[in-house]
């Protein structure tokens, strides 16, 4: 880990930690870092690397060492352990410090740092969890393979019906949390290791009485490297969502 602990001062990004999980993103990481700090100079960045074989962790360390403003931090984990686990480790790191807002963002450029101000503005406006949504008016997909789009829309429809929630893009990975949401949910209660983690957190956010607001974003398919989505991720989502749906309905019946 590098960099020192400090709260951030400034305007829109003040007190915000952007958590970026990485696995084999050596070429993407410098590009997204540059774009992030060009867009919002007063956020902090935490890179959570799972010992990427391509040397992403060393690239992250070099970026942290070169940042004179000490805004970049790196968490090195020993093995690839899933997107959800990487985020939870990053959130725990952020909650241990003074950050007011914790952001999720991919390393591959799918989530434009230039649109982060939209998420932070909604937090400043009182939302508890803000989802950068592809499926609200103004949201868009660029170059995403048709099969990924169908999978994503299918997963969203399934989750909406099974859980009885109204979120349009509950699988989205571009998000901003007010720190109280994560503190109240309790990170150790989150059950999903993979991408189902996104649904898991949104579901628990609502169950704990917090609000979710969706703001439109443009999701652009990565130009470099490849997705780490696999069959295990899909199976975990299917099973967990079904289980939460049944639990939620039983709890309602008992009331
Ligand atoms: N540390 C770590 N990082 C990981 C791991 N798996 C993936 N990542 C990182 O997590 C980010 C997203 O992974 P991708 O594999 O590129 O995601 P995607 O298929 O494009 O999926 C995106 O869209 C989904 C919604 O449809 C989202 O659910 C998902 O979060 C993500 O935003 C990238 O920065 C990638 O390096 C892991 O096991 N460990």
UniProtKB/TrEMBL annotation:
Belongs to the glycosyltransferase 2 family. Its EC number is 2.4.1.83. One of its GO terms (molecular function) is dolichyl-phosphate beta-D-mannosyltransferase activity. It holds the Pfam family Glycos_transf_2. One of its GO terms (cellular component) is membrane. One of its GO terms (biological process) is glycolipid biosynthetic process. CDD domains: DPM1_like. InterPro entries: DPM1-like, Glyco_trans_2-like, Nucleotide-diphossugar_trans. It is an enzyme of class 2 (transferase). Gene3D superfamilies: Spore Coat Polysaccharide Biosynthesis Protein SpsA, Chain A. It catalyses: a di-trans,poly-cis-dolichyl phosphate + GDP-alpha-D-mannose = a di-trans,poly-cis-dolichyl beta-D-mannosyl phosphate + GDP. It comes from Gordonia humi. This is dolichyl-phosphate beta-D-mannosyltransferase. The lineage of its organism: Bacteria, Bacillati, Actinomycetota, Actinomycetes, Mycobacteriales.
């Amino acid at each position: 880990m590098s960099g020192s602990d400090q709260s951030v001062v400034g305007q829109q990004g003040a007190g915000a930690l952007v958590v970026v999980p990485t696995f084999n993103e050596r070429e993407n990481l410098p590009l997204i870092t540059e774009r992030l700090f060009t867009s919002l100079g007063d956020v902090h960045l935490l890179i959570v690397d799972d010992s990427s074989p391509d040397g992403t962790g060393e690239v992250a360390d070099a970026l942290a060492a070169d940042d004179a403003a000490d805004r970049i931090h790196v968490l090195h984990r020993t093995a690839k352990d899933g997107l959800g686990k990487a985020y939870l480790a990053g959130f725990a790191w952020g909650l241990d410090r003074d950050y007011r807002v914790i952001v999720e963002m991919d390393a591959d450029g799918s989530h434009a740092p230039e649109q982060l101000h939209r998420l932070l503005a909604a937090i400043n406006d009182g939302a508890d969890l803000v989802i950068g949504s592809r499926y609200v008016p103004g949201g868009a997909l660029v170059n995403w393979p048709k099969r990924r789009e169908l999978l994503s829309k299918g997963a969203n429809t399934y989750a909406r019906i099974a859980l009885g929630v109204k979120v349009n893009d509950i699988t989205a990975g571009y998000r901003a949390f007010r720190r109280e949401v994560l503190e109240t949910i309790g990170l150790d209660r989150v059950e999903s290791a993979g991408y189902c983690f996104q649904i898991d957190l949104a579901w628990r956010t609502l169950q704990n009485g917090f609000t979710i607001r969706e703001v439109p974003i443009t999701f652009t398919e990565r130009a470099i490297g490849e997705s780490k989505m696999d069959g295990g991720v899909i199976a975990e989502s299917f099973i967990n969502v079904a289980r939460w749906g049944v639990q939620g309905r039983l709890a309602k019946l008992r009331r």
